[in-house]
Design brief:
The chain is built from 17 helices and 21 strands. It has 469 residues and is an alpha/beta fold. A 5-stranded parallel β-sheet has the order 5-4-3-6-20, covered by helices on one side. Strands 8-16-10-11-12 form a 5-stranded parallel β-sheet. It has a 3-stranded antiparallel β-sheet with strand order 13-14-15, with no helix packed on it. α5 packs across α8 and α9 runs parallel beside α17.
Length: 469
């Protein structure tokens, strides 16, 4: 970093920075699975607390002591039943939940000894064993109700809602804008968190309950589309997530080399050959959340020489968990705090650019920040970081004006609902990231989907209840 304009440089964004074997190693499973022996030993550490704080901390209410006891008894199928009955996306949540802030954070072993039971890894152990077994489907549908429900979006909220409704005997059609179902589980998470196409394996397990049809490449864009869904179906659930990234609102945002981090992650997730993905030699990621960490670490793993994750406030305000921050630093990412972007500098301003290099980002100018009387203020100092690639990870927004035009009440740019997810429009519910007031966590989106499914089931008559095979 410096306070002066960078010296002349050619943008260095290219693919193939690593050998083929290095890519495979870099993007291998970040947390290897427990062995049977390890799972038995770890499960014995559980105190099987009455009124367990870990269960209370889980947004989906998984009975943690119960499933861990079944693992200790070497009953993985029973453990998986307990997990998936409460959270049908329990396998993905075991991989991506900030467990240190939820179940493991309140584990009695953690509060007494500073080392919680590895609840997330045990949960993954049980669910993976089930999905890979020759009888992966535990549950069966209740008798058919004849009712149909439209679910817009196949992310965690939509999938959880559809699965719960299907178990209750309703027929569900999922409409999704992407070629594959899964939402952020498929397109928005770091590849090292969910390798080996796990998101699609989980989707196929969910669809195995029956009664769910997926229509891909369908985007909700008009008032008439929503009106048609309300007319054709007995209820509608909106779980389309957030469609656009906030703007930085500074000069240079349209320069070549400046990208949304979510698009970068999605491209990486869908690539069949990581060696073909271009990455800058010097990467700057602007943002302080989980998406910023995922983008920064993966840029480093693709072969970037230097990666800075830059946030305008201090460490206490980073929304990325402590574990995620440590993971980023372990992988060579530099976290720079108290810096707010002022300008994305083009190559023409980096002095004597080479032929054809105009219009590409070459640096980011930041203003130093400080808290003054409880207010974030610029100090007057500036810093310049060289960058061949800048990734924006500053949060997303709904970005769909037709929802207000359709009469939906919005709150802070997201859909306002009651506690069960019901909107102000009769027969329409919403959940996940598009619902106002959430934490933007996968597990919370699943909880939203379940809550809305239960409310929709009651709205449709609530005659049947889900069955267990």
């Amino acid at each position: 970093m410096s306070n002066s304009v960078p010296q002349p440089v050619q943008p260095d964004v290219r693919s193939g920075r690593l050998g083929s074997a290095e890519y495979a190693k870099a993007f291998a499973d970040a947390q290897p699975r427990l062995t049977r022996a390890q799972s038995l030993l770890e499960s014995e550490r559980c105190l099987y607390c009455f009124d367990a704080p870990c269960t209370q901390a889980c947004p989906t209410g998984i009975d943690v002591p119960s499933f861990i006891k079944r693992i200790a008894d070497d009953n993985l199928r029973g453990a998986a039943r307990t997990i998936l009955d409460a959270n049908p996306l329990g396998g993905m949540c075991a991989r991506v939940c900030p467990t240190e802030n939820l179940c493991e954070g309140v584990c009695v072993r953690n509060t007494q000894e500073g080392k919680p039971v590895a609840i997330g890894r045990l949960q993954r152990h049980a669910v993976d064993a089930l999905i890979e077994s020759n009888r992966p489907q535990l549950f069966s549908r209740a008798p058919a109700t004849g009712k149909t429900v439209a679910v817009v979006g196949s992310g965690p909220a939509g999938l959880a809602c559809a699965y719960t409704l299907a178990r209750d005997g309703h027929n569900v059609v999922i409409f999704d804008a992407r070629p594959k179902a899964g939402g952020l589980n498929e397109y928005g998470l770091a590849s090292y968190k969910t390798p080996n196409q796990y998101a699609q394996a989980e989707v196929q397990w969910l669809l195995g309950i029956g009664g769910i049809t997926v229509r891909n490449d369908w985007r909700l864009e008009t008032v008439n589309q929503l009106a048609a869904l309300r007319n054709e179906f007995d209820a509608v659930f909106l779980g389309m997530g957030l469609s656009s990234t906030h703007s930085l609102g500074i000069p240079g945002e349209t320069l070549t080399g400046v990208r949304d981090a979510v698009d970068f992650i999605a491209e990486l997730r869908q690539s069949s050959d990581l060696s073909t993905l271009p990455v800058g030699r010097r990467v700057v990621v602007i943002g302080g959340g989980m998406t910023a960490v995922d983008a920064a670490v993966q840029a480093k793993l693709l072969g970037a020489e230097s990666v800075h994750m830059v946030y305008r406030r201090g460490a206490a305000d980073l929304s990325a968990s402590i574990a995620e921050q440590e993971w980023a630093q372990t992988n060579g990412v530099t976290i720079a705090l108290w810096l707010a972007p002022l300008e994305l500098v083009p190559t023409l301003d980096c002095a004597s650019p080479g032929p054809g290099s105009s219009g590409h980002v070459c640096a980011v100018r930041f203003a130093h920040q400080a808290m003054v009387n409880g207010k974030l203020c610029a100090t007057g100092e500036t810093t310049v970081m060289q960058a061949d690639m800048v990734l924006k990870a500053i949060g997303q927004q709904l970005g769909n004006p037709m929802l207000r035009d359709a009469g939906l009440k919005l709150d802070g740019g997201r859909i306002a609902t009651d506690a069960a997810g019901q909107t102000n429009l009769e027969g329409v519910w919403a959940g996940g990231d598009c619902r106002a007031g959430g934490l933007d966590l996968t597990v919370e989106a699943v909880a939203h989907g379940k809550q809305s499914a239960n409310a929709i089931h009651a709205f449709l008559g609530g005659i049947n209840s889900a069955a267990v095979a």
